[in-house]
Structures are given as structure tokens and as C-alpha cells.
Amino acid sequence: MTPIRTGRLDRLVRAWDGLYRRRRQIHVAFLVLLVPYLAYFAYTRLTALPPRATQAVDPYVGLVRPAADVDRTEDLIKAIRSLGALPSCPAPTSAPAGLRWEPPERFRPTAPRDSSARGRGGRRRGGVVRRGSRLSGGSPSQGMKIEISHHIATSGEWSPSTRLHQGQLLEYVQRPDVREALDSIVRLSEQQFCLTSQEMRSLKFPWQVCGLLAFRARSVMAERQDFAKALQDLEAILRFAAEIEDDGTFGHVMPGGVARCVALAEVMHWCREYTLPANEARGFCRWLEGQAYDWRRVWRQALPGEREVLLGDLDECFTSDGRGNGWFVVRSPMRDAGVHWTVGLLNITSCFFDDRRIAERRIERQFKIVSHVSEMSVPEIWKVYEWTLADPASRPVPTRVRVPSGFPISAVQLLIQSEAFHRGTRAALGLAAYRADHGRFPERLSDLVPDYLEAAANDPFSNHPLCYRIEGDGDFWLYAMGPDGKDNGGTWDRRPGLLTPYGGYDLAISCPRERDGDEWVLVPK
After folding, report:
1. Buried b vs exposed e over 187-196: b needs ≥16 C-beta within 10 Å?
2. Beta-ladder partners of 89
3. Strand, helix or coil for residue 520
4. Is residue 66 within 8 Å of residue 338, measured between CB atoms?
5. Which of 120, 145, 148 is nearest to 134 (CA)?
6. What is the per-residue pLDDT across 90-143, written as a single tens digit (0 to 9) for each?
7. How far apart are CA 476 and CA 340, in angstroms?
8. What is the pTM of this model?
9. 29-58 pLDDT, tens per residue?
10. CB-based burial of residue 424 (10 Å sphere; 0-12 exposed, 13-18 middle, 19+ buried)?
11. Helix (H) or strand (E) holding 510
12. Are 239 and 189 in contact, with CB atoms under 8 Å apart?
């Protein structure tokens, strides 16, 4: 047993005794410090306006709204809602003689277990199999319903008689009410509108709407080879993309870019699978060239609106006074749960947080830095982005610009991908026109200049011509080098999501269709 060191204990006792004897002086000192602080806290709360309630925030902050006499937003919302939900159908349980239904990946056999059990093996809600579910036994149970996805139905070859999703979706778009709604949406694409991000999510716009228009365009091309009729739906998608991108926030730049890629990808598949007349291919190529898509312009247009959105968010987090200043106010992160007592303590100490003016200056400084992105080369953008993710001690710090942690790299990435698809589509249309005249695809993209293209299509990632090669069966590959600026032979990441900024992958612009592994297909036994 270690003996207690009385010397140290005596010193602690004497120190405490000294503080106790001076307790009156300590109380006075606390009052001298605390009373002015509380007085200043009360003054700031009495002279400052309360923060704006979340429900009162204008959802159109930062958006460029059209004039009231030409705004057709309500008509567009009504037309989209008239489409209703995509159909669901029973899982196939029988097939014609000599054929069988091949289940998708989520129905492949696994370890034996009850298919109705919840957990990693499977998931059932309301009799509908969710995308990503996995059931044992090789087939679903009797009466199980399958959700039809327009993403699945627009991938792979056109064969609605042997593909469950395509057949069901074809019946859906041929219904009179759906056809009327889609026609109304196409007409409204020529008008002006402005949807908030919340409205687009609730309406599944533009993903589902543009997917249905692309599917209907493909059905027209597959059944009648009517290029002009099918092009009307794709032109509507491109108009939607341009209108959404011009609304002035990063939240609208991304869905606009997705819609644009849906339309352009479908046109590039037409160039491969159908024999387009040379004059129609040239005409559409000239139309695309007239669009003059420039990702730097779209980026610069989105910055002012995004700045207004962030400045508007300050009204939810800060009080304000007549001079435009105010203090940070902490709110309970849980809705409908009351305010926890610790939130009140944090608000009492809120004068130690940044005030409103400091937050505004920080936002202004951030947007001044991010505005330089439109002047940087694409490889430099990826270099700066990799630096923001890595340890500064392990990578050299770029001297030109230091991007803040909130740098929206995904928006820039999708913009550059959209421009790559835009240039690749023009090249694919030139390839289709060349094949219509010569019966084959050219050996090099440079053979399209100047008869089919005014200039060679460059890769926006590297500023070199797009990569192009002919396969042994006469088919072709068209791809961009990707953010690493290297030709990886067309290797591309098949996982969903945006293109990774790291090396080893290219951006596939036009490649042979592949059947989606998550769909029921009728195959021989």
C-alpha cells in the first residue's frame, strides 16, 4: 500500500482554504464579468430580429423566375402529375413452350431462407419487390409484383416481346391518357417555367419524364424509323435541360445535365443501331452545333443564384438588426421534439460564435475563389480537387487557387460530362451520315472533316480529339479520356454514379448496348 504524500495534500487543502476565504471577492469578480455579458446578450436579443422560420423561406431564392404572364410552371406540374406512377406487374410464372424467364440478379439463388423474411436476404413491402432486393429459390413467390423502371426499359436492345419491363412500359406509354400527357409535356417544353428542387424531387422530374420521352422516341424509331417524329421527344428533353440549367443554382445544373445526357445518349444509339438518312443526320448535327453548349458559361450562370441561396440560408441561422448584423442561433436538430435545454445554453454562449457579417464575408470569399474555376483547365480542376480530399502534408498545395471544402466538384464534373456527350453526339451523327454515304464507318474521326463536321470533336477533359476505334465486326467505340487525361482503352466504371476523378477509367460516350442485369428476359431453355 502506497503511503499518502501529506505534503501535496496539505498544499491542496491550503489552496482551497485560501479560495474559500476569498469567496466574496471571487463572487464580486464573477458579477463584474457576468453582468455586462448578460446585459450585452439581452441588448443583442432585444434589438435584433428573430431568425426567419424554416417554413417561411422562399423556395425560389436564387432561381431566375420567368415573368408572370409567360410562366407555365403550374401547367407543367399538372401535366406531370397526370402521368401517375409507373406500372407494376406480376412476376412471370409461366413461359411459352421451349422458353423460360431468366430472373434478374436480385432473384438469383442464394442460401436457403424464407423469402418473406426481412434482413439482408430479402425485403418485402406491400407486395412489391424493391430494386436491390434479393430472394432465394431462383424465382419470386406467387403473386409478387415487380416495379417497372424506365432506366431498365431504356437499356439494352429493343425487344419488348422478350423483355418484361419493355413490354409493360410500351403498353403504358400507348395508353391514351399517358400519350395525351406526354404530348402536353412536349408542348410545354417550348414555354418558360421554374421548378424548385423540392418540386422536382416530388414530381420525379426530369428523370422519369425524360426517361419516358426517350423510351417513346425509341419505340417510334424501332417500329416506324420515323426520325422526325422521334426527334420531337428528344428535342423536348434538350429544351427541358436548357431551361433547368438556366435557373441559376447548382441544384438545377445537375438535373439539367442528367436530362441532357439522356437525350444525347439515345441519339448516339440511333446512330449505331439504325441507318439514319444522311441529310437528317447532317441536319440534326447542324442543330446541335447551333446550341453552342459551354459548361463554363453554365457554371458562371449558376454562381450568382447559388450565392443568393447561401445568403438566404443565413436568415434561418442568424438574427439581424438594423445594421445588418446579428448572432448565430442554434436550433434543435429534431423536429416536433421540443427544444432541448442544451440548445438554450448554446444560445446563451452564442456571442462567442461568428456573427452575421463574418459569415457573409466568408461566403463572399468562397464564391470569389470558386468563380475562378471557369478559368482553370480541367486537369487543374481535378488536381485541386484531389488536394482538398488528401492530407495537405502528403500533396503539394497548388499555388494558384485553394478551393474551399464545400467545392461542388460533382456539379463541375457533370457539366464537363455533358459537354463531352454533346461533342460526342455531333461526332456520332457525322459517323451515321458517313455510313449512309459509304456503307461503313470511317477509320478515323478526322475523315469526317470537313464534309460531315466543321471541326474535329475534342475531348473536354484533355482538349485532344475524342478516342475512336473500329471493332472487328465493323462497330465502333467512342469515348473520352476522363479526368486523368490518359487513354485507358475505353475502360469505364460501370457502377452507378458520376465519373470518378481518379485514374484508370475513361468516359464511355457511345458503346454497344448491354442488357441490364436487373430485368426479366425470355430466353430459350
Report:
1. ebbeebbbbb
2. 146
3. coil
4. no
5. 120
6. 888 888 889 988 888 766 554 444 434 333 333 333 333 333 333 333 445 455
7. 63
8. 0.78
9. 888 888 887 787 777 767 777 777 655 667
10. buried
11. strand 507-510
12. yes
Beta carbons of 419 and 457 less than 8 angstroms apart: no
Q: How many residues does the chain have?
A: 525
Contact yes or no for 398/383 (Cβ under 8 A): yes
Half-sphere exposure of 67 (CA within 13 A, CB side): 2
Residues 287, 290: Cα–Cα separation, whole Å: 5
- Residue 493's pLDDT band (cuts 50, 70, 90): low
For residue 450, whether the previous peptide bond is cis, meaning omega lies within 30 degrees of 0, is yes
Rounded mean pLDDT, 186-203: 91
What residue has cell string 419524364?
209
Characterize the bridge pairing of strands 128-129 and 145-147. Answer: parallel
How far apart are the C-alpha atoms of 215 and 363, rounded to whole Å? 43
Cα 46 to Cα 41: distance, rounded to the nearest angstrom = 9
pLDDT digits (tens, 9 = 90+) for 314-333: 777 777 776 777 777 765 54
User: Which residue has 465486326 as its cell numbers?
Assistant: 473
